[in-house]
Amino acid sequence: MYAQVVVDVPTQQTNHSYDYLIPELLESVVVPGVRVVVPFGRGKRLVVGFVIQVLETSQFKRQVKPIHHVLDLTPVLNSELLALSSWLTQESFSFWISCLQTMLPGVMRSKVEKVAVAQTSAIQASSLFQGRPIIPFPTTALAQQQLAKWKNQGLIEVNYQVANQAHHRQQLVLKRKSLNYQELLMTLSGRASKQQQLMQFFWDHPQLKQISYQELEQKYQISAATANTLVKRGYFTKDKVVQWRQPDTGPIVNTQARTLTAQQQQAYQTIIQAQAKPILLEGVTGSGKTEIYLQAMQYFLQQGKTALMLVPEISLTPQMVAQVQGRFGSRVAVLHSGLSQGERYDEWQRIQLGQATVVVGARSAVFAPLKNLGIIVIDEEHESSYKQEDNPRYHARSVALWRGRYAHCPVVLGSATPSLESRARGQKKLYQLVQLTQRVHQQPLPPVQIVDLRESYNLSVQLDLSQPLIQNLQFCLQKKEQAILLLNRRGFSNFLLCRTCGQVPQCPNCDISLTVHLQNKQLLCHYCGYHCAIPQKCDHCGSRKLRFSGTGTEKVEQELQEALPSARIIRMDNDTTARKGSHRRLLNRFGQQEADILLGTQMIAKGLDFPNVTLVGVINADTGLASSDFRASERTFQLLTQVSGRAGRDQKPGRVVIQTYNPDNYAIQLAARQDYERFYQKEMNFRHQAQYPPYFYLIKLTISHRQRAAALKLAYQLAQQIKPVLQKREVLLGPTEPTVARIKNRYYYQLVVKYRQNPPLLQLIRQITNNVQVESRHGYLVSIDNEPQKME
Ligand code: ADP
Ligand code: ZN
Ligand code: ZN
């Protein structure tokens, strides 16, 4: 028997597999989806690979080598995920191995490492082993010499193992037996009170099947000895069970299902009756999309199926996670990048074993190994964080749609401001479009006031808060209501500006200005991490007149405090949320009304539901518009609509104040009216004329090299290859320099292809992908991005 294996060899990445012989001993365990260790190349090099298929024969019979050993006794990827990986490698122009690896928790992606195994306790005690039975092969020549000597003497063995494999802990639990506890209490009377207390405890909690020894000890001061006595007497059994590392997601709200409004009911019915067609659930902010998701998920769970829910970024949406957990309890697994490696691995295991049947998570959760999928929900489907910006550059929405087709289950794309791509598909009836036009309590959408900042522009002191905004804040605080203030930071930074010569300090390695970080008094490059102390005088002209330009949350906070001395303010930005869980804590404090104003960056725009918030202010609506990206208007419209939707969600009416230098801009105007329909029409017009998605597809190729001329040369060569396969109206842009043309001393050029239906083009791009390895040996890096979310 032969196995087709996709191997993990950085210098040999391609889109195909290699054949290996399955040794007879391993025949029963080598099945598709298990990981194996195989020899690769001429040397004795061993690498990890994934078995894709098992075959009776091989074309390459003569050359095939045998599999060295097997890493998994059961497959880590099921047939669905294997099929998905093969589609994904085509779709995203990425290597097969990275598609396979990306589906697994990080700890399972590790490489094979060479290890030394001590054969005697004396060796184990040596300074090299330091009491451990196995050590990774050391790098120093001296240590290697020592090991070689020991090996010759038969004192150690040299072997290979996968580094860093996650291990979960086991714990002892006390399990109840079905006994009549009333009787037991009687027979126990007069005995040790701790035993009685334990019996009483189980009596009081009839649902409780088991409790860990650790919990007994810590929470109830009942010792293991007491528990053991009762086990001996036959009242309980004890057992060892796996103890999963559970991510700390904060307090869980216990939410009862609510009676759906008429509009919600209609949407719900459409979802549960949907066949294979995806559903675009377009509902204004506060229309109760979450309740629909939860009840639809409940419906499919009752059918014995599983449910997957994607949210843009878990740390930003703790309220959503709390609701899912509140509704579905311990069946829920949470997956996102904020978990520790161990927690991630354990959550993955619980899903794999079928113990968790509901998954809520960010982008990569789309690969959760749920079997028998009943429904997939993508909340805020328009969010750009669903696109992975690194290899493999996949879009979680496309992956979810693939899984929906595979499982024949509904995929619900929810948003108040759908991406133009999705809405266009809804229009073409490729998706079923379901609209929610009313908020749950019939509240009107909040009125929006646009404040023209140009009027205050001439003031000598440039303030960030206009009079109308301050007045609204005062009024809001008088009523003991709360406000959310957004500081739009996209494309924005704090620079140091020389007021004499106009120079802004630049990164020596990248073509970008350095950003001021007041906290540690440094200038920092966001691309390469270069940093230095904030200089006293200008490098260029020697002037000491240096000034910060730009607005920061700290600065606005100060200004706010001066204007409203009694206001209690919570500031939420990268600085105040750097620590794990701090995001949630700040939001909790705000929810418990321990503050009046929540001031923050983009991270406060999404999904927050605070009934006492009646005012939303946007400090600068413009920064997003300044960008040259064709999605700039769409992003601005989405952000403003989302954040406006945080006001007046309960019974109290809300208000929104938007400050801008472009009061006539259509994205701002239409967001103020929450008029998605008009925005969609207008923006589609622009996209049509400028030949952008959803009318055209895009592929972006980025070419870099340490020498500018070399990068440019390859970019031209690729352009020459691509041009002949383009069809009428299809366009190749470039080579052009991206906005930041040099990063870490590499020079960048990019090509953008706009195309419609062109299989030969895709074929060519795949060919280019496969050649990339060859180029990389000459110092080139080529990355290919299908459907790029960012044009820069
Ligand atoms: P969206 O996600 O569409 O912006 P939410 O799902 O956050 O809106 O719902 C808005 C508010 O209405 C929430 O506080 C939610 O708990 C509440 N809600 C949703 N559906 C109902 C319902 N059927 N009855 C009562 N309250 C509801
Ligand atoms: Zn200067
Ligand atoms: Zn840099």
TrEMBL record:
Record has Zinc as a keyword: yes
Source species, domain of life: Bacteria
Cofactor names: Zn(2+)
Entry EC no(s): 5.6.2.4
PROSITE patterns listed in its UniProt record: HELICASE_ATP_BIND_1, HELICASE_CTER
Helicase C-terminal domain residues: 533-687
GO MF term list: 3'-5' DNA helicase activity; ATP binding; DNA binding; hydrolase activity; zinc ion binding
Class of this enzyme: isomerase
Listed InterPro entries: DEAD/DEAH_box_helicase_dom, Helicase_ATP-bd, Helicase_C-like, P-loop_NTPase, PriA, PriA_3primeBD, PriA_3primeBD_sf, PriA_C
Domain (Helicase ATP-binding) ranges: 270-436
GO biological process: DNA recombination; DNA replication initiation; DNA replication, synthesis of primer; double-strand break repair
Alphabetized SUPFAM superfamilies for the sequence: P-loop containing nucleoside triphosphate hydrolases
Catalysed reactions, semicolon-separated: ATP + H2O = ADP + phosphate + H(+); Couples ATP hydrolysis with the unwinding of duplex DNA by translocating in the 3'-5' direction
Residues that coordinate or bind Zn(2+) 2: 507, 510, 525, 528
GO cellular component terms given for this protein: primosome complex
Residues engaged in binding Zn(2+) 1: 498, 501, 538, 541
Keywords: ATP-binding, DNA replication, DNA-binding, Helicase, Hydrolase, Isomerase, Metal-binding, Nucleotide-binding, Primosome, Zinc
Database matches in Gene3D superfamilies: P-loop containing nucleotide triphosphate hydrolases (3.40.50.300), PriA, 3(prime) DNA-binding domain (3.40.1440.60)
Pfam families the record matches: DEAD, Helicase_C, PriA_3primeBD, PriA_C, Zn_ribbon_PriA
Bound cofactor: record note: Binds 2 zinc ions per subunit.
Subunit structure and binding partners: Component of the replication restart primosome.
Family: Belongs to the helicase family. PriA subfamily.
NCBIfam families tied to this protein: priA, PRK05580.1-3
Protein's job: Initiates the restart of stalled replication forks, which reloads the replicative helicase on sites other than the origin of replication. Recognizes and binds to abandoned replication forks and remodels them to uncover a helicase loading site. Promotes assembly of the primosome at these replication forks.
Protein name as annotated: Replication restart protein PriA
Gene (UniProt): priA
